[in-house]
Amino acid sequence: MSLQLSVLDLAPIRSSSLTEVGDVAASFRESVALAQEAERLGFRRVWYAEHHNMPSIASSATSVLIGHVAGQTSTIRLGAGGIMLPNHSPLVIAEQFGTLATLYGDRIDLGLGRAPGSDQLTFQALRRDPASAESFPHDVLELQAYLGTESRIKGVNAYPGYGTNVPLYILGSSLFGAQLAAQLGLPYSFASHFAPDALQQAVAVYREHFQPSPQLAEPYVIAGVGVVAADTNAEANALLEEVRRDRVQRFLGRNRTEPFTEEELDMVMASPAGEQILNMLKYTAVGDAAAVGEYLEQFARTADADELITVQSPLGADERLNSLRLTAAAVR
């Protein structure tokens, strides 16, 4: 199988309580270990996603985490999957990723998303205007120019950043991102690991309307897919059930002081709101190495993808590393 495989790491913070923050330092150690193992196994890249005000995710300061991991790896590509550009000034992001590219060379990617990656209250705390999402296409071009040699704002350049030409990727879960990536001639990464519904339509639009650019001559699609791999199918299915219950608990129980009981959680999972949350896991490979390999090959055809970015979903750190190893074995 010639398909490229990569990893999306949300830097999960493990906690036994919905109201207490877990060990963030341990989360960062696990992210380093995951990237080092992904490098050893031949994965193409590891990306980190910007989220805010989420006690279960530690990748909010995305560029800082990329730099931390880059300093402890040597060959694997590292990047943002993605930076939510409406939260930031394009100049500041150019400086951050220009710094990373200067320090770590041609290993740095910059994926860009249009969503805020947070709720409206958090968006206000970030001192951003919700209308800033409307300027996303302009901001992408401004950022791209800062990383090149011809700024769109006379007299303003990114130092570091100028001339680094950090490769850009457009992230999306709708036709908007597909159309923009096609128009700008940039690679397109679809968030099918949590927003599966428009996958095939968006990829088709992107491929049909793609315009070559200095960065990219032909369309290039990355699709997100969850993976729960274990030594046996039974063990993998048990891990998946843990993931399903944890996902619903965290999304629908976030404002509770006490978690749902097991009986309450059963009822919530069967509700329309619970089913909507569980649909986010629609594209998930589950099973032993053989089952996961078969699923990933079929999913790549379904998504018409050149590369899959896998979300290793088991909740435990050891189980996540084992899932990563079995994924690599599955496609050898």
TrEMBL record:
SUPFAM superfamilies assigned to the protein according to its UniProt record, in alphabetical order: Bacterial luciferase-like (SSF51679)
CDD domains found in the cross-reference section: Flavin_utilizing_monoxygenases
Gene Ontology CC entries for this record: cytosol
Record-linked InterPro entries: Bact_Lucif_Oxidored, CmoO-like, Luciferase-like_dom, Luciferase-like_sf
Domain of life assignment: Bacteria
Luciferase-like domain mapped to chain residues: 14-302
Gene Ontology MF: a single term: oxidoreductase activity, acting on paired donors, with incorporation or reduction of molecular oxygen
Family: To bacterial alkanal monooxygenase alpha and beta chains.
Stated name of the protein: Luciferase family oxidoreductase group 1
Lineage of producing organism: Bacteria, Bacillati, Actinomycetota, Actinomycetes, Micrococcales
